[in-house]
Amino acid sequence: MTALAARRRHPLATVVLLLLALLVTGAAYATVAPREATASTTAGADDVEAGQELFLANCATCHGTQAEGTRNGPSLIGVGAAAVHFQVGTGRMPLQKTDVQAPRRGPGEFSEDEIRQLAAYVASLGPGPAIPDDEYVQPLDDPDRIAEGYELFRVNCAMCHNVVGAGGALTRGKYAPALMDVEPVHIYEAMQTGPQAMPVFNDANITPDEKQSIISYLKNVEERSPAGGWSLGSLGPVSEGLFVWVGLLGLLIGAAVWLGAKSS
After folding, report:
1. Measured in whole angstroms, how far is the alpha carbon of residue 206 from the centre of its chain?
2. What's the whole-number mean pLDDT along residues 49-67?
3. End-to-end distance of the chain based on CA atoms, in angstroms?
């Protein structure tokens, strides 16, 4: 028996092979795993302190003085900077009134710097999704990336938001909002954090590059003219033609009923 054959039959040989296989698998995954979008700026201690002052003055009533949550608002520990930047940046927070869903109200009462300070404070409380880097939220003119964004949006988002992002109704008074005229960074953050009834699409589900493709598709839809000349949900000339045909048919039926009533 050779020395090599003897080592192969050693009781620990299987364990060593398994450990090597795990190491190789881990290294391969680390190489091909999707990159996580990170914030382009790093918040300093001054931003966190300023954000805490803003939080105590505007948010603590519902979310608690330590952001631990109360019966009027959830805990914000671990939600990350992206969730705060989305909710406050779109004017959904601070909440104006209790309702089934907070509507988008535009930029709201805070400046961009103040919103980022609030986000920095909440991010300091626990790890969570960061505000995405600018390179991932710029819409692209590349037809291939727009086509990819259409496919991703159709499969993952269109059942609630409509295939052209026009929005739609959900159950119990909730709704999927229209995505036109929404800032690209907020579209990205919504996918990343899953606000309200929306599911979370983390970087393992939809990579940062794929999120950028979805943004590119929505901005392309926003900029192009309706295919049929009218918007009507931007569903195309067939649906618009059907709308006109049904309207004319209704007029003809009404005219026939009116003429019949006049003759009798």
Report:
1. 10
2. 95
3. 114
